Structure prediction request, 60 residues.
Amino acid sequence: MARWKKIQNFILTEEVTFIFDLIRKKSLFLETLLLLCVQVLSDKEIGNFPAHKAYYCIEL
Prediction:
């Protein structure tokens, strides 16, 4: 079973919610999920996000 790791406090965007819906349905391999999470992270300006929601990613 994969463990969840808290990376940083983020707003949960639609893209992130979509990723987690897929992992809950077991529709993604862990490597794919990790790549998607990294892409979401790299596409965002982290400093501009309010830190009131936690963003989690798979720890392989």
The helical segments are 14-24, 30-43. The chain has one domain: 3-59. Residues 3-59 form one domain.
